[in-house]
């Protein structure tokens, strides 16, 4: 039965929907950037409310360094790369990829205390994963397994490019959006809605760092966008499974087959796979990376581009919704407790994963 | 004698010129919108720092509903109307015009706790009046009587359209502006100034919810804008009476007649009537509705348009002045106590109406 | 040896790099405006987080008056001048140049309490100097002596106009920039860098209100921009001396001569003189006036314009750097203590001048 969500929504807006004083777990892997974004020219990206400088060394490997020079706080992400070092664009202090200070033409004498934090960074598939917390705890085996979700075996191919958006909303609002797919039939009613999500049994599975939501629909008309893409207008079965890899990646499989009562019933029509990577930027903004893949017409790049551009507005609808909620939460001094629906169970579990992990870090 | 206005200006800027901690009286009628603004497509309007959704039912009657879905805080004013219900644009919760939740295609099961506040709303003349506070106290007979100020008897006709502006200033600064008409000769010197306002005896009348200021000028040259409009360049008498209907409406009569020493002395030249409706939006912004009417050349729509467009800059001057004061009040950590002039007596009385009403609500 | 700069950088961002609660010394002379900016039309300028109205009387002398009318806080800097008085643009209160209220057409009766603060203001060379603090302490002999830095004897002439910028950074970040010239070789590497600043002996001289930094370089290639300007491509000696006149003016001499090993060794090639005047505007913005002069080709206005426009990007680089640091300091709840380099000694002394002066004013 629905209950007021008091344990989570405490009436303070600061980091709604998390309990007061909580922001984000630090000892975790997050997507910092697309591989293609990081070059020899350093870039600045705020991650968990700290500036980070990202660049590549001469051997092509990527570095994530504290983005604030410890001397005068100038942004290293708006500075220069010299060899494998980053050189502060203000007074010329140089830092090696391990964070230690290096003598430079402008600053020959560098004190031992002059060093910056370097973040563990791992490049996988097309993404760079960063560990904002204690480097000693950074275990690359904790990065979501790209084999697990089939990125490396070629059965799915990308539709167009991976989208990057800086979203004007706190990161938890994006997770809320992805934890509760009943929004598909309303916010995205004209594109990928279909099937009565709220009334269809939702199977959940929660492990330490995975939360899965699974629904199966029978005898549906294909969603407005998908019919033409699949080249099929009969009734279909739709299998919708989304897995959250705590704390920053959701991947889903949206699989269509001919309904059993149709000619060729049970025949696989095609599946869309998607990734949503969410990384806290500041307290009120987020990095949002989204990719779509398909397992059909894999050589048809034009179709891939059609899917990517056709579903781009869907992502913008999510960004609109979370941005609007951010505006309200920021403007009101007090957000009342929420109403909880049956369909919020997954969301409640997901929020609890964050609250527990942050709570553990705060208790240390 | 002028005294420092310490009782009102407490040195805190938060809600200058009100005492600390006061914002706005809630158990009152305010203009929420022009009738013409509210349609079947819902609109969002912040009122007393809360989002409100306004829309019309199939029978044309208007509804003012809490503008924030109680489930995930998505703006209902940026959602959809379905029949007489509003359907949240995020997860599809529907709310009936009485605020109760309704089952919907997207959300068949709706908990009883899922309801939104509905605001008493009354449509009068061309305006929608909202009661942001306790609905049980909302007595429509408290709405300013439109017969009282002649809106319904046809003796005055509108000049052009009613203007709506969202003003970047707290609402009390707009009331301050209207309580003290000595600004006409300075801020509006090139349009409607005329007569020595500060030196002319001001008759005041204060009742529980009305405050009237009345001045009569003899043997004036018509104000720069009015001479040509009235087609008269001789000396005139001017009668200026402005009535404040607590807490949100001011109406004035600005009446011109030939001066007694002129040929045809005493003959009525014409009167301009005006309405200014002020509604608190957020703590630092306001809704400002303004209308002008005339009792002469009532069939001359072109003249009406000429008056409306000719006096539009006057309203912008008021918006400029209040916006500038808002900027200063917001930027300074402490506003010094004000100097009080003789001409501020009306303003002092008007401020006190607010402080007393808010104080009563806070005491409950 | 470098030490953590704990005494200054306390971990609070509010007014980094000053100790908590400190903003700016008030009993000091600051440049309020260029002489050419102040006319019969009043202008508004925020100085030390207070609005100031600047205008000229009929005799041409300039007045700096509290920029906020004491009646309703309307900006006097956006009002009107009537004779020698300023007339508030809202209700017409007039103030004489001594700050006392004057009767006016709109307000004949003015209470004695109706007066505004008037700031001591002195016009020197092309600048207006304001004293924001206690007028009784305003001694014009404390204004930096324009003879001392050669502005009045004609040996230097202006290159183009004096630049004015409102900088989106707290004023101390601009002083930090000027106290530590090692940034020339990095931030300005393509224009006026040259000589190993960090490794070259820096002679400092600190008196009560002067702080001088002096470096002499031998056998340098001229900086990229200066070679062509001086018409010389051989090795040169460079003498760089910058003097800070507490609390708002820096002047430098950047003098070039032929290196002793070159033909004509020791011959004076030319000197650039510069002024940087920094005045706190709000807590997060500053007024920045910058002038360049030359002692060579004094009749060549085109060369002067070439120098001015050629070095304009250099000033924008400083504005960029300080603006970036302001963004970081404003966004982070806590700025870690800084690393201190050998080359920061001058900066440390300069910061201490401010902390001591502000501390003295706070102790009164």
List keywords for this structure.
4 helices, 4-stranded antiparallel beta sheet, alpha+beta, homotrimer, 364 residues, 8-stranded antiparallel beta sheet
Terminal residue distance of chain A: 35 Å
Net shape of chain A = globular
Helices and strands of chain A, in N-to-C order? EEEEEEEEEEEEEHEEHEEEEHH
Point out poorly predicted stretches of chain A: 1-13
Largest interface: A-B, 30 and 29 residues
Instruction: Indicate the proportion of strand residues of chain A.
Output: 25-35%
Using only CA atoms, what is the Rg of chain A? 22 Å
Query: What does the largest sheet of chain A look like?
Result: 8 strands, antiparallel
Q: Helicity of chain A, in percent?
A: 10-25%
**Secondary-structure-derived class of chain A:** alpha+beta
Which oligomeric form is depicted? Answer: homotrimer
What's the pLDDT, averaged over the residues of chain A? 91
Q: How many strand elements of chain A?
A: 19
Task: Note the total helix count of chain A.
Answer: 4
């Amino acid at each position: 039965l629905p209950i007021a969500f008091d344990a989570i929504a405490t009436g303070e807006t600061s980091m709604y929907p998390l309990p007061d004083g909580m922001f984000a777990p630090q000892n975790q892997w997050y997507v910092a950037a697309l591989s293609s974004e990081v070059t020899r020219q350093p870039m600045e990206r705020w991650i968990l409310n700290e500036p980070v400088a990202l660049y590549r060394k001469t051997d092509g490997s990527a570095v994530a360094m504290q983005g604030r020079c410890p001397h005068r706080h100038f942004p290293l992400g708006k500075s220069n790369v010299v060899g494998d070092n980053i050189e502060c664009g203000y007074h010329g202090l140089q830092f090696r990829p391990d964070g230690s200070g290096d003598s430079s033409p402008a600053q020959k004498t560098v004190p031992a205390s002059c060093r910056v934090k370097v973040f563990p960074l791992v490049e996988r598939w097309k993404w760079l994963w960063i560990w904002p917390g204690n480097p000693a705890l950074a275990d690359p085996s904790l990065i979501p397994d790209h084999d697990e979700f089939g990125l490396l075996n070629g059965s799915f191919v990308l539709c167009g490019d991976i989208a990057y958006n800086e979203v004007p909303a706190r990161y938890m609002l994006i997770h809320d959006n992805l934890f509760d797919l009943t929004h598909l039939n309303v916010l995205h009613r004209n594109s990928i809605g279909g099937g009565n999500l709220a009334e269809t049994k939702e199977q959940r599975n929660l492990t330490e760092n995975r939360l899965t939501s699974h629904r199966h629909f029978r005898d549906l008309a294909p969603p407005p966008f998908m019919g033409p893409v699949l080249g099929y207008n009969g009734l279909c079965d739709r299998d919708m499974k989304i897995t959250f890899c705590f704390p920053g990646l959701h991947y889903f499989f949206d699989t269509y087959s001919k309904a059993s009562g149709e000619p060729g019933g049970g025949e696989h029509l095609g599946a869309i796979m998607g990734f949503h990577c969410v990384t806290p930027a500041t307290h009120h903004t987020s990095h949002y990376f989204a990719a779509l893949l398909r397992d059909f017409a894999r050589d048809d790049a034009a179709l891939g581009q059609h899917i990517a551009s056709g579903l781009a507005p869907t992502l913008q609808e999510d960004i609109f919704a979370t941005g609007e909620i951010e505006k309200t939460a920021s403007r009101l001094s007090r957000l009342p407790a929420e109403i909880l629906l049956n369909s919020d169970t997954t969301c409640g579990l997901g929020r609890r994963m964050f609250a527990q992990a942050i709570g553990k870090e705060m208790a240390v």
